[in-house]
Amino acid sequence: MKQAEIQGMSVEELQKQLDQLKKEYEQMQMNHAVTPLENPMLIRKTRRTVARLATELSKRDSQ
C-alpha cells in the first residue's frame, strides 16, 4: 500500500484496514512458524504496512 493511498483514507478506513492487517500478520507468523511460507518477505511487507497505518493514525490524532 502506497503512502498516497494511506493519506487519502478516512480515519475509520485506516482503523479498519489496520485491524485487518494485524490479524493477517499474526496468522502469517503462526503459519510461518509451523511451515515456512513460500514468500517470507510478505511478513515484512505486512509488518511495515501496519506501521505506516499506525503512524498515519497517530499523526491524525495529534492534529
TrEMBL record:
It comes from Aureicoccus marinus. Keywords: Coiled coil, Ribonucleoprotein, Ribosomal protein. InterPro entries: Ribosomal_uL29 (IPR001854), Ribosomal_uL29_CS (IPR018254), Ribosomal_uL29_sf (IPR036049). Transmembrane segments: none annotated. Gene3D superfamilies: 1.10.287.310. GO terms for molecular function: structural constituent of ribosome. Residues 4-31 form a coiled coil. One of its GO terms (cellular component) is ribonucleoprotein complex. It comes from the Bacteria. HAMAP family: Ribosomal_uL29. This is Large ribosomal subunit protein uL29. It holds the Pfam family Ribosomal_L29. Belongs to the universal ribosomal protein uL29 family. One of its GO terms (biological process) is translation.
